[in-house]
Backbone:
């Protein structure tokens, strides 16, 4: 309740890369500084803690903690209750870095062409819809520019798909 660390396990210490001497009893300020020095957005981290303790003291919450070094932890917290009174919070962390990286990679693959790395039809349709909505909202015109490679089929048929792929990659680099 006083926002002091009353217990932890070695797995927590190792995950957070906190030296043993920092987690000694009564050393909460140094531990907090150590934690805040690692997280990507210390202000958001503190704001979330305040929310857990002040606005939603009885709620269970799942969220993410992003670190400066690229690690991502899933944070689960719930109230610690004794005699029907909230006396603190219990936190549990799970490293989801690899899962998040994989999700990001899958999203990229789903929205970009493998050969050219240009956004694909999924992104195109989304951007067109966004542009139409913006045009309606702001009463402005939008434009769509369409490129066509004349006789591209001839390149593939006469010079081969490898040369055709190289041509597409070259054009995409110039467009980017």
Residues:
């Amino acid at each position: 309740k006083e926002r002091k660390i009353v217990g932890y396990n070695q797995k927590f210490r190792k995950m957070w890369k906190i030296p043993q001497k920092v987690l000694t009893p009564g050393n909460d300020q140094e531990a907090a500084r150590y934690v805040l020095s690692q997280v990507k957005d210390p202000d958001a981290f503190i704001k979330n803690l305040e929310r857990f303790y002040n606005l939603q003291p009885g709620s269970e919450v799942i969220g993410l903690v992003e670190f400066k070094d690229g690690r991502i932890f899933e944070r689960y917290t719930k109230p610690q209750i004794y005699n029907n009174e909230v006396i603190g919070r219990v936190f549990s962390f799970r490293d989801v870095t690899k899962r998040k990286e994989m999700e990001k990679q899958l999203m990229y693959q789903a929205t970009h062409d493998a050969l050219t790395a240009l956004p694909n039809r999924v992104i195109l349709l989304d951007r067109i819809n966004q542009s139409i909505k913006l045009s309606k909202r702001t009463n402005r015109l939008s434009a769509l520019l369409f490129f066509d490679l004349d006789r591209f089929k001839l390149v593939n048929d006469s010079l081969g798909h490898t040369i055709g792929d190289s041509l597409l990659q070259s054009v995409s680099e110039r467009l980017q």
In short: The chain has seven helices and three strands.
